[in-house]
Every structure is written in C-alpha cells, then in structure tokens.
C-alpha cells in the first residue's frame, strides 16, 4: 500500500498503526501540503456491510465533534474497494507506549492526562456520543504533551444500542465497564469507568484485572472487587485513591455522574484537596447526594440470648428442630428479599428540543428529576429549550435519577453599531468587531457627499440582533459612473476572481463555501449575478467557493511521433486542466521515434506537445 494515492491527493508514506478493523498510515495531502493520518478498513472486512457501516459511523460520530482533545476528521472516501477516513496527524505516541516506556507515571502527570481526556468526553457526551472503547491505545500524547482521544469506531450515538455485536464483546476487555461486559444498555458513565481503569493503570502500573482469557477478565469486571490503588502504593494521596475507586464502582449510579464532575474531582485532587472537600464539592455540583436515591433498610435486630436448661432428656432433638426452623426462615428471607427490595429500571425519555418547563414536567411524570446543568448560547436551538441531556434518551436508570439538562439561551446577541456618516472601510471594521458581517451594499452617486460615506443601514443602529446578522449599507460611490458587464468568475480561483472584480470595481461579498467533487478547494463554483448583467461600480456580487475535495486524478497515454530531423530534438508535453497548467514531460528523442508519454490530469483539459516552441500535437482530455 505504501506509495498508493487515494482520492487523487493522499499519498501513503508509512504504516503507523493497526487494529482489528483498520490499518492507519501516515500520508501527505498534496492539495493542502500537509501530513495527515489515513485509516483504511481492512480488505477482508470491506465486504461485510455491518462492518462498513460501523466504520462509516466513526467518521459521522467524530465529524460532529470539534474539541482540542479529540482528533479531527478531514475527509471520508472509498476507492477501488478501499474505505478510508482522513484524520488529523498527531506527531506523538500512544498513552500505552508512554506507560511501557516510563515504567511508572507520577500521579500529577497521570491526573493531568485524565483531566484532558475528561474534557474530550464531556464534549462528546454533550453531543450524545458515547466512546465505548476508552483505553491507553486510543489516547495519543503529542510531543508538546497535548492529549488527543481517537478511534470512535464503536462509538454509540444517543439513540443507543447494546454492547454485543454478533455475539462478540465490543470494547477492550481490560478497560470494559461491567454493564458492557454483561451486554446491558450503557450510558456516559461507562466511559468514565473505562477512564478510571486507564487511570488505575497509569498510577499503579498494572490493569485492574488480569485473567487467562477475555471472558475471565470480563467476569472480574462484573463480580470481583479491585485491589485499591492505595494498597499497592501506600504513599498514594487518599484523594486519588478515592476518585479511582469511585470511578470503578460496579454500580453506574455510584460513579461520577458526568465527565465534567469527574474532571472537577481530578482537578481538586491535583490541587491537593482532601477527600472530604472533593465529596462536598460533588454534592454541591450535583444538587443532591446519592442517599436521595438509596432505599433505606432497617437493620435486623439482634436475637436475644437464649438459655437452654439441660433438665429435659429431649434437649438435643428440640434444639436441632429449632435451628433447622431458623435456617429455613433465613434462607426464605434471603430468596424473597430481592422481590421486595428490587426497584425496576425506568427508560429516560427524550426531552431534547422541548421547552424547559415542559421537559421538567415530563421527567417528573416519568419518575425522574430534571436539573439544569448548563445554560449556553445556541443559534440552532430556541431560547429556554433543551440542547442535550445526560443520561441520554433511552438509557435505563433507577426512579428518582437526576437528569442533567443543557439549556439554550438562544442565539448570542449584539448591539448594531451606528455607521451613518462613517467611511465604508471603517464601518466594515466596526461591523466585524461587533460580531456581525457586511451584507448587501447598495451604491448611490452623490457628487457633494464624501466618497464611500455610509448614508443608511439595515438593521437600524443600536438595535439588538443575533451575532452573525448581515448589516446592509447604502454607500455613496461619488459621481455617477458607467456600468460594466458582469464577467464569469466560474472555475477561477478566489484570488483570480477577486482581481478581476477589483478591476471592474465590483465588491465580492458574501463568500460562501460548499463541498464539490468537480472543482478543487478555493475555486469559484457559483456566482449570484449572471455573466453579462450590467453592474455599476461598487455593486456587490456573492460567490460560492469549493471546499474540495475536487475531481479525482485520471491517467491517459499521449503518443507523439517525432518529426524528421538530422539531430535529436527536445520534446515538451504540457497539460492544462482544472488544477493548473504544468509541464508533464520533457526529453530528447531521435528523428521519427514514437514517444508514449503518460500524463496525469484532473477534470477536463488538454495536452500539448511542443518542439522548438512549435505546437506539433494537441489532445483533448475528458
């Protein structure tokens, strides 16, 4: 595979990793001249539709995420049976490699790494994405010690599903949560358990459980207690021991409720705070302690001491009969207790998009408790509506569970500046500084008014508007000038189009972007004003620019017969296509020799053969 070019732009340079589903290569993107990582689905799995869908889901999952601690997705494609994802390339090592090389990590460094992973998980969970495979191999440390979470290949969307897939465990068994091991429905606390297992290994130098087989390890996650980290490292701070034990609780409700809550505990431990202070912070942040959701059982009263006199010859039969009866009652009580104590699970309803009051009422009617975790500006979700919720919809929880809500404050608003009487250039800066964009420009021609002065604006000055709103202006362009015809800007680069528009005193605004497989990034693919339309100087024309990926590379042969000559002649073959005009071949040949040149081109174009500055053959490329 090394040297292979995918999508006409990604040249595979070096194999840098491999997993059960895919192989990862370091590659060079010729279009943007940068290094990328290309994950290619294994060839033997590319015929399995379920695996392909899972592979595509990773790209869809991560494409929704934008966070400094999550590896970015740049591109997705398929070619000749290969399915691939193009990702941000991180020059560094996996956390697993760091564990093996450092042979014991300082607690402070381990906490700093876990804090950054928590920040990434908090962002993913707010978007309704559960990673499901947090492990040291999926955490990358860059050379400047930045932490990046990668490999959302088995990420679970908010609609959810269960752990098993065709009877196999999904997730790495040494870091898998008990509910994943049992095949139960999971929520975001499963990721926090896995992070706890990673932190356990960072601190102690070993994984929480070992076994002869994956099933044996999974069984221990469900049933066996961990060896407390403080028992392995007696000098370990109690606060660190506490938060690792809490994150590795078998019961999800006894773990940290959210990644944000776990991050706060990690930060407090890094600051040297005590266990009591960390616990008090958690109670304040969640609004209630776990006792609010715990059923209280009265202790069994101690049986009074019984004195048995030995005067009767029937002492032993009666004693045996009494002990047997007590044992029978005890066994019956043990077997029947779960029927009276067990509390059935509830399905968390979806309240996303609903008004806060309606969401709280619906949760209360479902036997749950809704609380507002955050309030944030959001342009796509109306004011006082629910943006996201934790636990996610369809998760199974106990009655009374707290459902944390993120509430929209609506779009961020700003005050429109007063632009009347100001110069157009100054107005453009004021508009941008206030968080708005320049909208349509309507020119007027007044000889007695300063050139480029703003005469009026829409929306009006000092009004409150959503940030990003276009501000339309009426601008004086001086003495009346003659109109000119709008040229075609299609296929030009944005620089070429801007230069041509500038010559005609036409303003290019706004500039939009959209994907195109016909034109390379930076080329104009649409214009708001048709070519040939009469425009006055100062008129604005909106354009749409391709964001890529552009046409795929094509290859074709070009046969040239060298003309008769007494000496060797130099042949030059050039290609003009949608990408550029460039030289494809140059070489000296004998008289009458047949030269077969291989040319590479993008989209439509032409190939030309030139000898001594004269065109001897031309070929159209389609």
Q: Could you characterize the architecture of this molecule?
A:
The protein is of the alpha+beta class and 622 residues long. It folds into five domains: 5-88, Phosphorylase Kinase, domain 1 (2-Layer Sandwich); 92-289, Transferase(Phosphotransferase), domain 1; 346-408, Trypsin Inhibitor V, Chain A, CATH 3.30.10.20; 413-549, Trypsin Inhibitor V, Chain A, CATH 3.30.10.20; 553-621, Immunoglobulin-like (Sandwich), CATH 2.60.40.2560. Helices cover 27% and strands 29% of the residues. It contains 14 helices and 30 strands. Strands 1-2-3-4-6-5 form a six-stranded antiparallel beta sheet, with helices on one face. It has a four-stranded antiparallel beta sheet with strand order 27-26-29-30, with no helix packed on it. A hairpin with a 4-residue loop joins β8 (139-142) and β9. α3 runs antiparallel to α5, α3 (107-126) packs antiparallel against α9 (259-270) and α5 packs across α8. The chain is flat, with a radius of gyration of 34 Å.
Quick take:
The chain is 27% helix and 29% strand. It has 622 residues and is an alpha+beta fold. The longest helix is centred in the middle third of the chain and has 27 residues, at 315-341.
């Amino acid at each position: 595979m090394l040297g292979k070019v995918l999508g006409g732009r990604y040249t595979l340079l070096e194999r840098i990793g491999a997993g059960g589903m895919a192989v990862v290569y370091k590659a060079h993107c010729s279009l943007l001249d940068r290094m990328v990582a290309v994950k290619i689905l294994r060839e033997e799995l590319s015929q399995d539709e379920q695996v392909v869908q899972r592979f595509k889901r990773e790209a869809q999952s991560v494409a929704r995420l934008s966070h400094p601690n999550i590896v970015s997705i740049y591109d997705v494609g398929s070619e000749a049976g290969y399915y691939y994802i193009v990702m941000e390339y991180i020059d560094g090592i996996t956390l697993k490699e760091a564990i093996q090389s450092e042979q014991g990590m300082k607690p402070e460094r381990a906490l700093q790494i876990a804090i950054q992973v928590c920040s990434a998980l908090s962002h993913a969970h707010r978007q309704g994405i559960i990673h499901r495979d947090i492990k040291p191999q999926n955490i990358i440390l860059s050379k400047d010690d930045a932490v990046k979470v990668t490999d959302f290949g088995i990420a679970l969307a908010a609609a959810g599903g269960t752990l098993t897939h065709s009877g196999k465990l999904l997730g790495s068994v040494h870091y898998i949560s008990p509910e994943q091991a049992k095949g139960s429905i999971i929520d975001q606390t499963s990721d926090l358990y896995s992070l706890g297992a990673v932190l356990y290994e960072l601190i102690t130098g070993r994984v929480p459980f070992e076994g002869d087989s994956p099933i044996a390890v999974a069984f221990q996650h469900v049933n066996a207690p961990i060896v407390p980290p403080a028992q392995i490292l007696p000098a370990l701070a109690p606060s660190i021991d506490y938060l690792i034990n809490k994150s590795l609780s078998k019961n999800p409700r006894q773990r940290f409720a959210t990644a944000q809550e776990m991050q706060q505990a990690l930060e407090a431990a890094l600051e040297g705070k005590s266990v009591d202070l960390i616990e008090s912070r958690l109670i304040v942040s969640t609004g209630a302690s776990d006792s609010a959701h715990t059923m209280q059982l009265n202790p069994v009263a101690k049986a009074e001491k019984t004195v048995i006199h030995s005067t009767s010859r029937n002492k032993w039969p009666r004693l045996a009969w009494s002990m047997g009866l007590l044992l029978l009652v005890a066994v019956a009580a043990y077997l029947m207790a779960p029927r009276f104590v067990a509390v059935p699970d509830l399905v968390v309803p979806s309240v996303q998009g609903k008004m806060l009051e309606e969401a709280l009422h619906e949760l209360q009617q479902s036997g749950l408790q809704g609380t507002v975790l955050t309030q944030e500006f959001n342009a796509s979700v109306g004011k006082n509506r629910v943006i996201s919720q934790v636990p996610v919809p369809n998760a199974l929880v106990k009655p009374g569970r707290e459902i944390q809500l993120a509430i929209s404050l609506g779009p961020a608003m700003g005050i429109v500046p007063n632009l009347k009487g100001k110069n157009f250039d100054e107005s453009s800066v004021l508009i941008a500084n206030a968080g708005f964009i320049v909208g349509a420009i309507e020119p007027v021609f007044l000889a007695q008014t300063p050139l480029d002065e703003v005469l009026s604006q829409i929306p009006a000055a000092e009004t409150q508007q959503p940030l990003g709103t276009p501000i339309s202006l009426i601008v004086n362009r001086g003495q009346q000038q003659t109109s000119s015809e709008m040229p075609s800007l299609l296929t030009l680069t944005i620089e070429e189009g801007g230069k041509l528009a500038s010559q005609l005193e036409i303003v290019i605004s706004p500039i939009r972007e959209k994907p195109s497989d016909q034109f390379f990034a930076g080329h104009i693919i649409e214009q708001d004003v048709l070519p040939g339309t009469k425009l006055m100087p100062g008129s604005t024309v909106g354009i749409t620019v391709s964001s890529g990926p552009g046409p795929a590379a094509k290859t074709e042969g070009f046969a040239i017969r060298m003309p008769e000559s007494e000496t060797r002649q130099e042949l030059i073959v050039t290609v003009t296509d949608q990408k550029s005009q460039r030289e494809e071949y140059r070489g000296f040949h004998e008289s009458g020799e047949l030269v077969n040149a291989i040319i590479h081109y993008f989209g439509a174009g032409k190939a030309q053969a030139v000898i001594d500055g004269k065109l001897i053959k031309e070929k159209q490329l389609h």
